[in-house]
Design a protein that fits this description.
The chain has 266 residues and is α/β, with parallel strands linked by helices. It is built from ten helices and seven strands. It has helices at residues 5-12, 47-64, 82-90, 103-114, 154-164, 184-190, 192-195, 204-214, 229-238, 247-253, and strands spanning 72-76, 95-100, 122-126, 139-145, 165-178, 217-223, 257-265. The protein has a seven-stranded mixed beta sheet, sandwiched between helices. Helix 5 runs parallel beside helix 8 (204-214). The chain is globular, with a radius of gyration of 17 Å.
Length: 266
């Protein structure tokens, strides 16, 4: 499976994924629904609740590596900056570098922060993590929320992130991976965005191996699919979304896919 960064950038540009009804509040993730959704309920999900679920996913990830005041953060795949805004409003840290390969998203994020109290605290950078400029260093915490599936070379990305981190630095990654190693042809037959080279669904075993090769320690992997896919699937059905939005839930139900939060240190 290969990812074409140009195709990813096109998909995230204005008028594409970021403006779809299934994503709102400039938050392009599936959400974390544990405290927000009773699976046995027939209630409709409101737009506000979908936004809350997306912020809840950021909270879940950041609480795993909770910044306490003086840390320097790096977000890989910051999108339109909504997650960075949430971090500024709810956590204490000294500086955050926010990285995204899509020019449109970086431009949107910069505009979002111009009218806030935080413009000097956050620096937005239009770069690919695999070709990251050397000036980003001495990072305490690196995190990524639902972006790693769009990185063409995750092994190289993890090595580059490790280079940015201080001794005892921490990383947290949240996104979906296959539960086992699956033939590329099978993955491509299930996930249209893989076939379009807009994402690559690696196995969690491969990601663990890549973390170890990059030199990460204390690797912890938590599967949270039960609190992600049911809520997201119910939401996209309310929106009469494109059928490709349903395949993640179906793959989870078939025990092919899960949603993971991964933490590690150096």
């Amino acid at each position: 499976m290969t990812v074409d960064s140009i195709e990813v950038a096109k998909a995230y540009a204005y008028g594409a994924w970021g403006d779809l009804p299934i994503f709102c509040g400039d938050l392009i993730n599936f959400g974390y629904w544990k405290e927000l959704l009773d699976k046995s309920s027939d209630e409709l999900i409101t737009k506000q609740k979908k936004i809350e679920s997306s912020y809840a996913l950021y909270k879940y990830v950041l609480d795993k590596v909770k910044p306490l005041g003086n840390e320097v953060l790096l977000e890989v795949g910051c999108g339109r900056g909504a997650g960075a805004m949430y971090a500024c409003q709810n956590y204490s840290f000294s500086k955050m570098f926010c990285l995204d390969m899509t020019t449109d998203q970086i431009d949107c994020a910069k505009k979002k922060f111009e009218k806030t109290p935080f413009p000097e605290k956050v620096q937005f950078i239009n770069e690919n993590i695999t070709n990251l400029s050397s000036f980003i260093e001495n990072i305490d915490i690196a995190f990524s929320v639902e972006a790693f599936q769009h990185i063409e070379d995750t092994e190289k990305a993890l090595k580059r992130i490790k280079q940015t981190l201080k001794p005892n630095g921490k990383i947290a990654i949240a996104t979906y991976f296959s539960k086992n190693i699956v033939e590329d042809s099978v993955i491509e037959s299930i996930f249209p965005l893989v076939l379009k080279k807009q994402e690559a669904i690696k196995s969690i075993t491969v990601i663990r191996d890549e973390l170890e090769k990059a030199g990460f320690l204390n690797i912890e992997i938590e599967a949270i699919g039960d609190y992600v896919f049911y809520g997201y699937e119910k939401w996209v059905r309310q929106q009469n979304a494109d059928p490709c939005s349903y395949v993640y839930f179906m793959a989870y139900e078939r025990d092919i896919l899960d949603y993971y939060v991964i933490t590690a240190t150096i």
